């Protein structure tokens, strides 16, 4: 998956101390690993997926406007 929402997620996790590699809007292996790390750090379900719980948490932290319905 790729696009502006992925780039926003990368920017969010980068701003909270996680290294995502290039912020390029591509959901690759490093982005997946850093999302898992972000989830662990924030006591979320650790699955590497931006589902409802992670989306809600990211929205509260960064105001991304993720709906949590489109998992990536």
From TrEMBL:
Protein name as catalogued: Peptidoglycan-binding protein
**Which branch of life, at top level?**
Bacteria
Which Pfam family is one of this chain's hits? PG_binding_1
Where do the Peptidoglycan binding-like domain residues begin and end?
A: 3-56
User: In the record, what lineage is assigned to the organism producing the protein?
Assistant: Bacteria, Pseudomonadati, Bacteroidota, Flavobacteriia, Flavobacteriales
């Amino acid at each position: 998956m790729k696009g502006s929402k992925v780039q926003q997620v990368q920017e969010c996790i980068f701003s909270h101390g996680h290294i995502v590699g290039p912020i390029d809007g591509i959901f690759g292996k490093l982005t997946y690993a850093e999302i898992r790390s972000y989830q662990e750090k924030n006591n979320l379900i650790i699955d590497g997926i931006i589902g409802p719980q992670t989306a809600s948490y990211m929205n509260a932290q960064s105001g991304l406007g993720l709906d949590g319905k489109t998992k990536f």
